[in-house]
Write a structure and sequence with these properties.
heterodimer, A: about 240 residues, Metallo-beta-lactamase, Chain A, seven-stranded mixed beta sheet, six-stranded mixed beta sheet, 7 helices, B: about 200 residues, mainly alpha, rod-shaped
Amino acid sequence: MKSHKLYTQGSHQWVVFGRDESKPDKIIDTNQYLVVNQDKAMLLDPGGIELFSPMLASVVKHVSLEQIEHLFASHQDPDIISSLGLWDQVLDHATLHSPWVWEGFIRHFGMQNIQYNALPDEGAEIALGSLKLRFVPAHYLHSSGNFNVYDPVAKVLFSGDLGAALEAVDAPLFVEDFASHADKMKYFHQRWMPSNKAKLDWISRVKELDVDFMAPQHGRIFKREAFLEFLEWFEKLDVGIAVS
Amino acid sequence: MKRGQSNQTIVAVTVSGRLFKAQVLARSLSISSKNLSAVAIRIGQQAAGLAVLASFYDELANSTIQLANKIGELTGSIADLAVEEWKLALLHQHLEKVLALEHNENTAYIQEKHEYYEAERNSKLSIFNRLMSQLELMLSDMRRQMQSISVIAVNSKIEATQAADKKELLFNMAEDIEKTTDSIITHIKASQNCLETYYSEARI
């Protein structure tokens, strides 16, 4: 599994993990993120059970397990958090932050040691070292209980499935040409995102954020210009197409 | 689930299912024994031998029901343990991969976890093996009890032919008991075969 430092400023880092060539062919490629501040670390959407060992091997290149005190699951899908039962056995003092609606469901992946912090619908903020990270509501995009994570210092918006594209493991890490990349995202957003109302509500809120990187859980990362282009494109896109 | 752990779970639930059916049959055997005893007492001296044999059936049938209950609890524990052991085996396998992929100062902690869970897994395996031995013994006991009933059922049929009144009824009742007993034995044998298959596959 490859890792790339998206942001580094002193002890403050964002690392993206993904493009895993060792993964079984039929499972979709995912991006996992690690946020480090001072000596504390948080894993965002740590991934599926199939990726646990390459992910753990990559993570310990950057931090020790004792530093990981927080996990975040944007929603309940298996590619997001089915590895939880294994993380639960290797992390001694960690808290999982995830939507309140999914607590009873996510616990099915196995949670004996990790604590569950049920995020309220309106969102929340937590401290990671000296950093304040915000959990930004993104309900119905696509999951009915769903959050993004915003780091106002690094100006990174972890957007979960928003901005996702299902691509090959050798795809570039950043969106270089938005117009050609839009084709790769179109069906995913139309089919997986159920609500135009939720879409417009989310766009109106994230427009107000200062974003240098929008980091999705699948596909390529958007730099500032591409992020603004994404918002414009997404606003016009009709979603929820399975029901006419 | 890895083959070994899934086999353990499958053995436990298969035996549990078979023994549940055997228990249902043992309950009907107990009722049949009481019926046979009642009819034999009503006939009187001519069927006195049958009345005594019927009380043996009842006693053995009740003991079989209790044994089947205990086996049901035991197989439940075995299935739970197999799943716990599977989880540990999965974790162990993943940690081994991590250690093969990466070695740095941060992996010492993973090595510690790896060793800890290996010890946990071995301890669960040893409990599992002990419970499986108990299961084998209980199944053998149950089979012996049923074989005793089977022998008594043959004697009952002979006794029935010597009664002057209701000879056919008594014979049919004794034959029903024999058939029920045979069905219970079939379930016990199937359970034992299941254990044998598990052990022979585990050896491979």
